[in-house]
């Protein structure tokens, strides 16, 4: 075992020499089955090693204990991994073939991991994809196959200062037309800025691209081979984003780091922000329980010409090609996607279930704030699943920043984005 | 910043020793103290922040003094499972790298400085070249190598890539080169072998650069994040910075209370180490820096 | 003689074995990556990539983002190195000027920023740099209306330079301190006896004697500062408007995108720059010495 690894490494050295001699890549990508081999319905056995990020990683052992009750011969070993730089960890693991059996994957990263050839396709018939929110399934797809099973979802809605809205006698906006006047009214009742929008910080695109979706834009051609950023609908969306800043509803210097906006919202200098289910917890620690209860309202995003689409994120599960207990891992994942287990997990972690039917009872069915996110989830979308998407988002962030700071126009920015994205390509 | 610049001009003006000029002396102390306050202000903020509840840390406008001081952040940190183990791992990794660097670098430094062998110049040139290669360049190949050697998720994998550094050999060689040859020749005439000379003559003289190397190595390894993150496959091999990132940095938010308490925990041992070794450290740098 | 060689190899053998494996080998690998079109997708089949010669290198200089990063890096180095050296030298001179009381306190205090963890200290500095943060409050006292440091494309880089200088002046200060201790006191005395002012004695006696020390400091700082990465990484993400993106940050991003060939090429541009700058410094300081 050990010496074969040494041999492999030495062969890697030989590769360097061979490279110079010009041994090139072959274009033919081997045609593979669209799904992995089926997994039986017997109880799982053996040790299943999994990675899970952050809080999910800290809490997952509790859920895994339930799994072991139902599958006495199986044992799940969870390693909690920091969110920070976790993609590097997964990539280097895939590169070396030294992986656990399964890992949690953030929505934006799936394509990159799948393209490295490190992930297994979801076995045929493992889960019924139609039971999940469509946006969540969309983010598990890569090159026409599914590489992950949705686990939990998050999406962003409008958080606003309820007290200021009441004082102004306005209610949450439902359409783009009502958006500006609503924010203006909050400003007139004491807020310096109406709405907080990111203006160039990492992942600015997750807040700006929804405006384009709301206007009806599609960021990729139907065949998934080309980016289509330079369209009238995309421009309409970007112009809408720009007018928040030009009409002084939003700060041209939006938040750069996590935790920056909450104190301003608590202090009342910013009257609204767009964020996800986790925001309540952050506002509680910044402003206290009472503040959230009395002064924070949550509403679905106002709809544009096409829809009120938001960005969908969350976590999904993938199995590595180098997994030692491949069947056991898929069985664990199948178990976690059952509605009952999804509800249990919500109880443990507060993560919103990806399975729609899990929302049918209890707090998930009755809580008014959760109802907002639930509505939002039905239309929420994920970014295109190309291997190059991360690289394209860096261009998006940079160009959106130029629009926000007034050094570029929406038209010029989209032209530049289209041109640079075409150069980067879709990784085909 | 303005205070620092002010202190530097004042300091330059009164640079030589002159005990007679009292006003100048007072000015110098004043400038140094002002500069020190400016330098330590961010530190103070960090320490004070670590005993604030998160709500107070992020509050705008932020205040220096905690309104309701709490040890809750530290309590939360210590209550985390395995916290002792992470501390232990960090210590083992950093200490092993320090020991390895001290041993191998002083041996190699001695060979490069005082012994003759074929290819010496070429090898030392290579060492100097490696001094300037950024770590990010070699990260992926290094990982593939270590995992192919079967050392991922082991202490070996955490330690071996950093157990020798070009900087260590460079420092030791510079220092040992200045040890007079006559000292070594005398020992040789007494019939001592090279090993004996190294242990009895060279090493005892090398305490200053060894202290320098110990501090620099400890510092680098104690704070290392990315390497332990990718090489540790299970939590029982996590080091302190990896565990702190796990607890404090989430996907959508940061627990600033835990982050600052963790930072205090990480920084304190290094400050203590520097306090103990500072004299040796400065001497060590003195002898290697000048030639 | 053969025995001597044998002994010599015994002394440096362990180092060379480890150094060759974990130091040289990855460099050879990454250097060869920089002339292929390898991406994250090929890492499991490293044999099947194409040799692309220097096309990554030409592509780099055709990329406006990289050119901007190169200019930013030069700006950082050109401002950061002299500033760090002046502050470090001034502090070393002050600490070496015969003060007795609290000397150890000053030494440890001024050295402390070197040992901080950058992630934690970033939190603090972001607060310091807020539009109504502590730095602007201090400036307001002397009647200056401070900018929104980290959001202003003109002021973000100076802000990061100040932070970097704060984090890094400790080690040069100690090196200068060590250098000053070896300046013979009688030389300074005789200069003073000859009627030189304190400043003249410093310029004409101390500074020339410090030249080798200065060289070491300059080279060490060049190596460190050309790899400018942590400050933009934790403070600005390279913004605003790309004004703090450095070459290292660019390389890090390319690694994140999986473009290993491009990322390696960017790193070796940096290596070339470090080598060049060190060479120039050797020429300047040696020539004068």
Question: Your description of this structure?
Answer:
Chain C: The chain crosses the membrane at residues 7-28, 74-96, 108-128, 155-180, 209-228, 265-285. Chain C: It is found in: Cell membrane. Chain C: Belongs to the binding-protein-dependent transport system permease family. Chain C: This is Carbohydrate ABC transporter membrane protein 1 (CUT1 family). The complex is a heterotrimer of chains A (428), B (291) and C (289). Helices cover 46% and strands 14% of the residues of chain A. Chain A is of the alpha/beta class and 428 residues long. A 6-stranded mixed sheet of chain A has the order 2-1-3-11-6-12. In chain A, strands 8-9-7-10 form a 4-stranded mixed sheet. A two-stranded antiparallel sheet of chain A has the order 4-5. Chain B has a single domain, classed as MetI-like (MetI-like fold, Orthogonal Bundle). Chain C is mainly alpha-helical and 289 residues long. Chain C has a single domain (54-285), classed as MetI-like (MetI-like fold, Orthogonal Bundle), CATH 1.10.3720.10. The radius of gyration of chain C is 23 Å and the shape is globular. The two termini of chain C are 37 Å apart. Chains in contact: A-B, A-C, B-C.
What overall form of chain C do the CA principal axes indicate?
globular
Summing up helix and strand content along with how strands pair, one would put the structural category of chain C as mainly alpha
How would you classify the quaternary structure?
A: heterotrimer
Going across the biggest sheet of chain A, name each strand in turn: 2-1-3-11-6-12
Largest sheet of chain A: 6 strands, mixed
Strand content of chain A: 5-15%
Q: If classified by CATH, what would the architecture of the largest domain in chain A be?
A: 3-Layer(aba) Sandwich
InterPro entries (chain C): ABC_transporter_permease (IPR051393), MetI-like (IPR000515), MetI-like_sf (IPR035906)
Protein name (chain C): Carbohydrate ABC transporter membrane protein 1 (CUT1 family)
Domain ABC transmembrane type-1 (chain C): 70-281
Membrane topology (chain C): Multi-pass membrane protein
Question: Brief description of this entry?
Answer:
Chain B is mainly α and 291 residues long. Chain B contains 15 helices and no strands.
Please describe the structure with a list of short key phrases separated by commas or semicolons:
heterotrimer; A: D-Maltodextrin-Binding Protein, domain 2; 2 domains; C: 289 residues; mainly alpha; MetI-like fold; 72% helix; 0% strand
């Amino acid at each position: 075992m050990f010496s074969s690894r040494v041999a492999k490494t030495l062969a890697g050295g030989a590769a360097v020499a061979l490279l110079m001699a010009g041994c090139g890549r072959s274009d033919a990508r081997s045609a593979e089955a669209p799904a992995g081999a089926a997994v039986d319905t017997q109880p799982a056995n053996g040790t299943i090693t999994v990675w899970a990020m952050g809080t999910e990683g800290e809490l997952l052992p509790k859920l895994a204990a339930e799994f072991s009750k139902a599958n006495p011969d199986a044992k799940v070993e969870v390693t909690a991994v920091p969110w920070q730089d976790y993609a590097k960890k997964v990539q280097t693991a895939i590169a070396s073939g030294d992986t656990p059996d399964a890992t949690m994957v953030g929505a934006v990263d799936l394509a990159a991991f799948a393209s490295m050839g490190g992930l297994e396709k979801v076995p045929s018939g493992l889960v019924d994809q139609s039971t999940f929110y469509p946006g969540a399934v969309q983010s598990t797809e890569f090159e026409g196959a599914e590489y992950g099973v949705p686990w939990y979802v998050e999406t962003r809605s409008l958080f606003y200062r309820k007290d200021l809205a009441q004082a102004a006698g306005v209610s949450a906006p439902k359409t783009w037309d009502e958006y500006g006047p609503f924010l203006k009214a909050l400003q007139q009742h004491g807020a310096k800025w109406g709405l907080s929008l990111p203006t160039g910080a990492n992942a600015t695109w997750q807040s700006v691209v929804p405006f384009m979706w709301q206007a009806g834009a599609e960021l990729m051609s139907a065949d998934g081979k080309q980016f289509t950023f330079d369209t009238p609908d995309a421009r309409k969306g970007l112009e809408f984003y720009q007018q928040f800043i030009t009409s002084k509803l939003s700060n041209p210097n939006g938040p750069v780091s996590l935790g920056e906006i909450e104190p301003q919202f608590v202090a009342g200098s910013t009257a609204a922000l767009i964020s996800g289910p986790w925001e309540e917890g952050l506002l509680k620690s910044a402003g206290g329980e009472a503040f959230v209860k009395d002064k924070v309202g949550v509403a679905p995003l106002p709809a544009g010409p096409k829809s009120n689409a938001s960005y969908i994120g969350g976590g999904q599960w993938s199995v590595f090609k180098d997994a030692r207990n491949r069947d056991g891992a898929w069985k664990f994942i199948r178990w976690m996607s059952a509605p009952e287990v999804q509800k249990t997990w919500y109880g443990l972690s507060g993560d919103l279930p990806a399975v729609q039917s899990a929302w049918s009872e209890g707090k998930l069915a009755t809580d008014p704030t959760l109802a907002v996110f639930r509505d939002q989830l039905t239309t929420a979308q994920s970014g295109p699943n190309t291997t190059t998407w991360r690289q394209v988002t860096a261009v998006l962030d940079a160009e959106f920043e130029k629009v926000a700071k007034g050094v570029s126009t929406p038209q010029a920015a989209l032209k530049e984005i289209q041109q640079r994205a075409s150069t980067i390509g879709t990784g085909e | 910043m303005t205070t620092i610049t002010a202190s530097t001009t004042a300091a330059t003006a009164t640079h030589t020793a002159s005990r007679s000029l009292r006003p100048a002396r007072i000015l110098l102390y004043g400038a140094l103290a002002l500069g020190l306050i400016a330098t330590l202000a961010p530190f103070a903020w960090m320490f004070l922040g670590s005993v604030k509840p998160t709500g107070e840390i992020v509050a705008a406008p932020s205040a220096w003094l905690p309104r309701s001081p709490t040890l809750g952040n530290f309590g939360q940190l210590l209550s985390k499972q395995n916290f002792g183990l992470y501390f232990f791992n960090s210590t083992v990794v950093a200490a092993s790298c320090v020991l390895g660097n001290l041993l191998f670098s002083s041996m190699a430094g001695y060979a490069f400085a005082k012994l003759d062998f074929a290819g010496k110049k070429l090898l030392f040139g290579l060492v100097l070249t490696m001094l300037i290669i950024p770590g990010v360049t070699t990260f992926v190949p290094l990982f593939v190598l270590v995992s192919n050697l079967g050392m991922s998720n082991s202490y070996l994998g955490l330690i071996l890539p950093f157990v020798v550094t070009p900087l260590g050999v460079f420092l030791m060689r510079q220092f040992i080169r200045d040890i007079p040859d006559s000292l070594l020749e005398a020992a040789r005439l007494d019939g001592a072998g090279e090993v004996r000379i190294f242990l009895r003559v060279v090493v005892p003289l090398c305490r200053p650069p060894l202290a320098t190397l110990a501090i620099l190595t400890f510092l680098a390894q104690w704070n290392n994040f990315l390497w332990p993150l990718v090489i540790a496959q299970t939590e029982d091999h996590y080091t302190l910075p990896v565990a702190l990132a796990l607890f404090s940095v989430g996907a959508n938010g940061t627990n600033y209370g835990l982050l600052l308490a963790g930072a205090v925990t990480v920084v304190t041992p290094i400050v203590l180490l520097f306090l103990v070794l500072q004299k040796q450290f400065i001497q060590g740098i003195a002898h290697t820096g000048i030639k | 003689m053969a025995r001597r060689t044998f002994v010599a190899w015994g002394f440096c053998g362990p180092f060379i074995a480890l150094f060759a494996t974990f130091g040289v080998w990855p460099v050879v690998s990454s250097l060869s990556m920089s002339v292929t079109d390898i991406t994250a997708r090929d890492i499991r089949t490293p044999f099947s990539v194409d040799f692309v010669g220097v096309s990554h290198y030409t592509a780099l200089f055709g990329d406006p983002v990289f050119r901007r990063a190169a200019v930013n890096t030069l700006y950082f180095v050109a401002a950061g190195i002299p500033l760090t050296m002046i502050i470090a030298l001034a502090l070393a001179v002050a600490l070496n000027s015969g003060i007795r009381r609290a000397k150890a306190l000053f030494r440890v205090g001024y050295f402390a920023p070197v040992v901080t963890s950058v992630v934690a200290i970033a939190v603090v500095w972001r607060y310091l740099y807020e539009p109504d943060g502590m730095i602007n409050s201090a400036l307001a006292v002397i009647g200056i209306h401070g900018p929104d440091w980290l959001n202003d494309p003109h002021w973000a880089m100076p802000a990061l330079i100040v932070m970097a200088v704060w984090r890094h002046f400790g080690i040069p200060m100690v090196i200068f301190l060590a250098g000053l201790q070896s300046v013979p006191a009688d030389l300074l005395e005789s200069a003073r006896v000859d009627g030189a002012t304190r400043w003249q004695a410093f310029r004409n006696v101390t500074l020339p004697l410090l030249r080798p020390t200065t060289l070491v400091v300059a080279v060490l700082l060049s190596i460190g500062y050309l790899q400018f990465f942590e400050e933009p990484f934790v403070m600005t993400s390279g913004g605003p408007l790309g004004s703090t993106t450095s070459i290292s940050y660019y390389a890090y991003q390319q690694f994140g995108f999986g473009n290993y060939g491009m990322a390696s090429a960017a790193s070796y541009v940096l290596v070339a720059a470090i080598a060049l700058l060190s060479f120039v410094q050797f020429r300047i300081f040696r020539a004068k010495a």
